[in-house]
Design brief:
Structural class: alpha/beta
CATH superfamily of the largest domain: HAD superfamily/HAD-like
Distance between the termini: 12 Å
Largest sheet: 6 strands, parallel
Number of helices: 9
Shape: globular
CATH architecture of the largest domain: 3-Layer(aba) Sandwich
Helix content: 40-55%
Strand content: 5-15%
Oligomer: single chain
């Protein structure tokens, strides 16, 4: 029986992937790295500090520090969200359906709280969620399950009675490792990623999250 829905944020609620690419290209540019949007896709779903550590391990730089690059990416992303962020298709419908169905709702995101706050406040979504949890509080980010396990504990629900809505392969892995069912709504560039096979369902947009799909997931395998 599905009792709770856990929403990812970036790429699921807000069309932030191009904004992340812009912010990462800017931030890593401060360190002399010239990233392409295609390279940015490699780290979709990871925490921003983990992205910076990944790039540093790949090609170390002298200055600025990893912390400064991380802060620059976050600051630019917040500004971009407020300037030109847009919601993904089906967000109001999915939130409304979950609320009418009596499902408890939580947000579990890899983004730091400053970015979560910018998104929720810009689009007036804060009241939709009982629990809002960032992986910045965790030792490990996605694809590890920690952010989902803690969010479920805060909400007071069993992960086995929960469904996670995710757009990235790393997010799908995190949700499944937490013992949740997972619906993937991937960007076209991720559509053929083999990691998506672990999802319990793959749909094109949140507008397809409906009673029939929920009934199928509640019925189990």
């Amino acid at each position: 029986m599905v009792r709770a829905i856990f929403f990812d944020m970036d790429g699921l609620l807000i069309d932030s992937e191009p904004l992340w690419h812009e912010a990462e290209i800017y931030g890593f540019g401060l360190a002399g790295l010239c990233l392409t949007p295609e390279q940015c896709l490699e780290t979709t779903g990871l925490r921003v500090d983990e992205v910076v550590r990944f790039r540093y391990a790949e090609r170390p730089w002298d200055a600025p520090s990893q912390e400064v690059v991380t802060a620059a990416i976050v600051e630019r992303l917040v500004a971009l969200v407020r300037e030109k962020g847009i919601l993904m298709r089906g967000v109001p419908e999915a939130l409304g359906f979950a609320r009418r169905s009596g499902l408890r709702m939580a947000l579990a995101s890899s983004s730091p709280y400053v970015i979560i706050d910018a998104v929720l406040d810009t689009f007036g979504l804060r009241s939709a969620f009982e629990v809002i949890h960032s992986a910045e509080e965790e030792t490990r980010g996605k694809p590890e399950p920690d952010v989902y396990l803690t969010a479920a504990r805060k909400l007071g629900v069993d992960p086995a009675d929960s469904v996670a809505l995710e757009d990235s392969p790393n997010g799908v892995l995190a949700a499944k490792a937490a013992g949740m069912k997972c619906i993937a709504i991937p960007e076209p560039v991720h559509r053929h990623d083999p990691r998506l096979a672990k999802a319990d369902a793959v749909i094109d947009s949140l507008a397809e999250f409906d009673a029939d799909l929920l009934k199928r997931l509640s019925a189990g395998p």
